[in-house]
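Following up on my earlier thread - several people asked me to post the actual chain instead of describing it. Fair enough. Here it is, all 340 residues.
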Amino acid sequence: MNFFKPFLLLALFSTPAFSQDEAESEPAVATQQPPQTKEQAITAAETVKAPTALQWLQRLTHSMRTLNFDTSFVVVRNNRAEPYRWLHGISDEQELELITLLNGPRKEAIRLDDTVSYFESDKSPYSVHSNSIRAPIPAALFGDIEKLQATYNFIGVGKSRILGRPAQLVRLESKDKQRFGYWLWLDIESGLLLKVAVISRAGELLEQIQFTHLMITEKSNELLQQLTTAVLPEPLSGNKAEVKLPWQVNWLPAGFELIKSSKRNIQKVDTEVETLMFNDGLVDVSVYVLASDEAPRKATVNQTGATVLLSTLRDGYEITVVGKIPAKTANTIAESISFN
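Reply from S.P.:
Thanks for posting it. Predicted structure:
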């Protein structure tokens, strides 16, 4: 599955204070300023006090890491809805987190600080070293949000009402045409997420995460407390892109970095698939390559919500690109692959 301590107010801008000596030392500058009307003074004060889009996102990151909360959300793709429950808390300076898919086969992830354990009905349980869960909530929102400024513009849009609560809308717009945009509605009181929408370049809603319940508490949920004594799988050994593959991706949108490479055997067809995974801080893109004796064919595209799956056959290999990116971007990535 490619998956709250009391609230601390975000420090806002404050008007600098000057001593009388400083004010008197520059009388010429002071007398040159035109007098402000009452309306202008009010507008100026509001501008100083209003947090920027970046400050809202920094507050979001801080809230998701430090608050004790119990929330539920629904992921809506192609008129299908997947309900989740999400618990987060701090206990004895340890960060605890649980995300559970509420419908269908079991899918659950548990995080104790920097160790995440995954439990799925069709796989053996396993753990990895990570400070965020691979889940519908983008991992970038838990980390260094400033890094996204290299490839996304942060835009504070205005206020709205989500889940019966006042919310601030912040848009993340790609600086190029190779990515989708993200609209985030943040709870004004706590800074937490209330809604997420993935928007195409044409303004089409591709996918959304709608929160349906939010409860913030002084102490972490008792269920989270029980996780500290649970027997969890030992973390797997790290794989940090050390596997060398006989092919390479020669083009990616700016900001994407290689985070993992791997080989694994698919027993059902007795063949090996090779994988490279890239990330731009917000979006994962995976490229799969396996040998094939089928005739070359043009790329075919399947899309579920914002996730595109593009597959093509050439040079004796089947190439598949998967990620929340436009089909044109996925096709350019596939076409850039060369074989040694």
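Residues 1-34, 42-47 have pLDDT under 50 and may be disordered. That should answer part of your original question.
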